[in-house]
Amino acid sequence: MLLQLENVSKHYHLGDTVIRALDQVNFFVAAGEFVAIMGASGSGKSTFLQVASMLATPTHGKVLLNGKDVTTYNEVERARLRNKEIGFIFQQFNLLARTSALDNVSLPLIYAKVSDSERRKRSEEMLKKVGLGDRMNNTPAQLSGGQQQRVAVARALINDPLIVFADEPTGNLDTKSGDDIKELLTNLHKEGRTIIMVTHEEDVAKIAQRLVVFRDGKIVSDQSHGTKKQRSSRKNNKS
Ligand SMILES: Nc1ncnc2c1ncn2[C@@H]1O[C@H](COP(=O)(O)OP(=O)(O)O)[C@@H](O)[C@H]1O
Ligand SMILES: [Mg+2]
Questions:
Q1: Whose CA is nearest to atom 25 of ligand 1?
Q2: Which CATH number characterizes residue 218's domain?
Q3: pTM (two decimals)
Q4: How many domains, the chain?
């Protein structure tokens, strides 16, 4: 199993009250899966992504990446692992403002100590892949929201991560730009990427093969619709 959460809780303390943002969550994802996560506001979706992507540590429980318990890692080890194995796409893009698309995308490679020329080559290739070959030298302010999110997708992929996490990647986009991002994520999944994506839009969730629903910090439903379709088509073939 690529990623496993074992009995994971994340508690926040506000004065005397304990907020159980995640409450004894068990979850696993295999390589190549595309999982959509839905649930009401405040149900724990973002906290789940943060804990699963090692950005935050759980209060209780274990997070295992390729069988290794990453909750035992210190801050430096976690940062190194995240840089190498995790891509993250945010609703607000989170690009560096006065920095070109090319430099935004190559930033994770600097941390990974990749040489200048190799960095440039790989970043250019990745920007071409997301359809921005002609906008590499533009800063975020010179790009539309949809284009900025495509830069963020390129940045998330540049280190060839094991898992890509996306927190409402189309939440700030118009319909057309949202459709572009949906298509991009669909293609990444076809290429074999593992993707875990939070969304509140049904049509965005539909591009994933599995839907996990959160309520009050717990997973209340976990269904693979890809599998269902396969089953029914097999039945049809037999009859
Ligand atoms: N840093 C924090 N400090 C205190 N409470 C938090 C913090 N982050 C999230 N919460 C609380 O945890 C719960 C889950 O939040 P979140 O994971 O952001 O939900 P969602 O992404 O589903 O809207 C909410 O009640 C939220 O207010
Ligand atoms: Mg959220």
A1: 42
A2: 3.40.50.300
A3: 0.93
A4: 1
